[in-house]
Design a protein that fits this description.
Oligomer: single chain
Largest sheet: 6 strands, antiparallel
Structural class: alpha+beta
CATH class of one domain: Alpha Beta
Shape: rod-shaped
Strand order of the largest sheet: 6-11-7-8-9-10
CATH architecture of one domain: Alpha-Beta Complex
Order of helices and strands: EEEHHEEHHEEEEEE
CATH topology of one domain: endopeptidase fold (from Nostoc punctiforme)
Number of strands: 11
CATH superfamily of one domain: endopeptidase domain like (from Nostoc punctiforme)
Strand content: 15-25%
Length: 265
């Protein structure tokens, strides 16, 4: 056995290894994270070693993300506000346009009614004037002629239609063509004449145009193929539904001599 076996060693006992780690992390506003490392690799009474590490990358990215989220929220709110303003303006414009349209339509309708009323009044005045004229003409059946009896009745009816319109195919009471007027006049005395000029030109006894009597039917064109008829009312005049431009008028035979005449009275 060694003589030093029981002699305590003069070397200091090696302290056991120990390590201590502390980690501190903070976020928001540039908080620093600190890692403290203490190692006992040296003597037991060695001072601890401390090291501080910054983590700026994490903090900057988080701040950027937060700011981006805030900006996006503000932009959405702004877009919604602008959209609401646009919708309100469009609604107001539509209401204004609707009111303007309704007002224009109301004015147009009022103008239309006023014009219709004015036309109706003018037509009523014209009818009243014509009726008055017809009454006067009906009472004066002997004017420009010595017609009596049936002939006077025929002439009176014809004169009562003066001023009526000429319309091809019309049969009264306010518009006529030439043959319908002649037919209606002779119907007043119970004579039923054919409807068209061709047939009326051969409906009675043929007479010469130099020996006419009041009430004779005048025709233009050939007998049986006449294209126009009228009635002789005396003094070289006749009454007929002339054409669309003249209507029912009294005319002078010298200006438009008839081709022939027939007598039915």
């Amino acid at each position: 056995m060694s003589h030093t076996a029981h002699i305590p060693s003069h070397r200091k006992p090696r302290p056991k290894s120990a390590s201590k780690i502390a980690l501190r992390a903070g976020v928001a506003g540039g908080v620093l994270s600190t890692i403290a490392v203490a190692g006992a690799a040296g003597p037991a009474n060695a001072e601890p070693v401390t090291e501080t590490i910054e983590m700026p990358t994490i903090t900057a990215e988080l701040q950027a993300a937060v700011q981006q989220s805030v900006d996006a929220t503000q932009q959405v709110a702004l877009d919604l506000e602008l959209q609401a303003q646009e919708d309100a303006a469009a609604k107001k414009a539509a209401q204004t346009a609707k009111k303007a349209k309704e007002e224009a339509e109301r004015k147009a309708e009022a103008k239309k009614k006023a014009e219709e009323k004015k036309r109706a009044q003018a037509a009523a005045q014209e009818r009243a004037s014509r009726d008055s004229e017809r009454t006067t003409l009906s009472a004066d059946t002997s004017t420009s002629s010595n017609a009596t009896g049936s002939a006077a009745t025929v002439v009176a009816f014809l004169k009562a239609q003066l001023g009526d319109a000429y319309v091809m195919g019309a049969t009264g009471p306010n518009s006529w063509d030439c043959s319908s007027l002649v037919q209606a006049a002779f119907r007043q005395v119970g004579i039923d004449l054919p409807r068209v000029s061709q047939d009326q030109s051969v409906a009675g006894t043929q007479v010469g145009t130099s020996n006419l009597q009041v009430g004779d039917i005048l025709y233009w064109g050939g007998a049986g193929s006449a294209y126009h008829t009228g009635v002789y009312i005396g003094d070289g005049k006749y009454l007929d539904a002339a054409n669309p431009g003249k209507g029912v008028v009294i005319q002078d035979l010298s200006g438009y001599p008839a081709s022939g005449a027939v007598r039915v009275l």
